[in-house]
Give the backbone structure.
Amino acid sequence: MARILVLDGHSAATLAITRSLGRAKYWVAVGSNRGIDAPAELSRYCRLSTRYPVPYEDASGFVETVLEFARKNEIELIIPVTDFTIAPLSKNRHQFQGVSRLALGADAAIELAADKFRTISLARELRIPVPETVLVSSLEDLDRAAPNWDFPVVVKDRFSVRWAGNRAVLGSVAYAYSIEDLKKKVGHRLKEAGDVLIQRFVQGAGIGFSCLAAEGKVWLPFSWLRVRETDPRGSGSSAQLSIPLTPEVEEASRALVTQAGLGGICMVEFKRPHDGGPPALMEINARPWGSLPLPIACGINYPLLWVEWLLTGKLPPERIEYKKGILCRRLVNELTHLEHTFHGTPPGWPLPYPGFFETLLKISLPWYPGMHYADFWFRDPSPGLSGLGSWFSGHLRQRFKSKSSA
């Protein structure tokens, strides 16, 4: 079997890929940033692990370290999982020719999907609903374009990672609660990044669509509903539920994936407004995503089918009838969600916010038929236990630090 290196060992998607490929008898190594917890390297399915310089602090050092490891260990396929590792490898893919294959799509597709403003522009061209969004390059632009929107307003970077030579500026997402707050937060991001997006907040349910894109077609469509988010105001999800595909989400997603020229496993995310409007595009990820364990639990083994296509050219079935009503949760994210509700509605947040006891009742049931855990596996307990231990130890250190400074 092929020897495979999966990067970004801290990522939930990396753990899912490691388990999927390891169970299929592939030889799997895991690479991770130096100095951080990496649960995937503790998996029983990880044969070897390596550490590399933090890519957004030293991109060339990261590439050199990965290349050296690949040569030394005869790695046939390298799978980068996050934007931090995808961009440096994509820009230096020529160095890996004759050494290892990179699980990457075309440069143009990677660059388009990384640019939130370009993806919004593409959706508009395809007549796919998007939240009202303005690209701001100066405070004067904000004064001219300041929309008459209700607050909060979303302030988000155009790129989650903006590269400048060997380093990168990390993107952020924040909420502005007044015009003064909006100007302050926009001004801060302009100094850091040069431009920023302001976007009307969409109150609604998060709906995801995933697939494997190959040879200009969409294979293995899958859909899910966000049940809870790590930050109740909006963030990555802590629990997701598999749902039937709907024509409007599938058609919009297929158009976006094919027009963007994506390759490999990818996802598109929408919000369905509570007021009954059509789903609005939130983002496109031309890479593995955090809730990847859910489709695997439902019968679509994306990592395995993706790797088989990359290594052998074997295309997957066009569709697989997957299980509906399966809930997948990540315990440490659920605990963080619960912690947010314990502290109550954030100052200035004008929208409904989940209550603590209501949330506690929902997440306290450890298991029922149809529930799966992304991090905890009975056959592979170490990654989940490590993540849980890190969560508690981090909170204890933070509490001790707060008391010491008081």
Notes: The chain has a mean pLDDT of 96. The chain has 13 helices and 18 strands.
